[in-house]
């Protein structure tokens, strides 16, 4: 599947956020804020899937 520049930037933006949150969770293992980071990372992943699907539906360049 061919994807456009916009698709890549949406994906990499989310992935960067997820990486930051996971890194935080790892450094602060067992703490409340680590737990929050893990939860946020999981919901970000869902948001990413939704955003990318929405993009694919509309984008003339992807597919
Ligand atoms: Zn696209």
Note down, in words, how this protein is organized:
The chain is mostly helical. The protein has one domain. Helices cover 79% and strands 0% of the residues. The protein has two helices and no strands. Helix 1 (5-27) runs antiparallel to helix 2. The longest helix has 27 residues, at 32-58. The model has no long low-confidence stretch (mean pLDDT 97). Zinc ion (ZN) binds next to helix 1.
What would you say about this model in short?
The chain is mostly helical and 63 residues long. It contains two helices and no strands. It has helices spanning 5-27, 32-58.
Class from helix and strand fractions: mainly alpha
Most strands sheet? none
First and last CA, distance:
6 Å
Element order: H for helix, E for strand? HH
Taking Cα atoms only, what radius of gyration do you get, to the nearest Å?
A: 14 Å
Overall structural domain count: 1
Bound ligands, named by name, code or SMILES: zinc ion
Helix content: over 70%
Stretches where pLDDT falls below 50 for ≥5 residues? none
Average pLDDT taken over every residue: 97
What is the count of β-strands? 0
Shape: elongated
Report the portion of residues in β strands: under 5%
Number of helices: 2
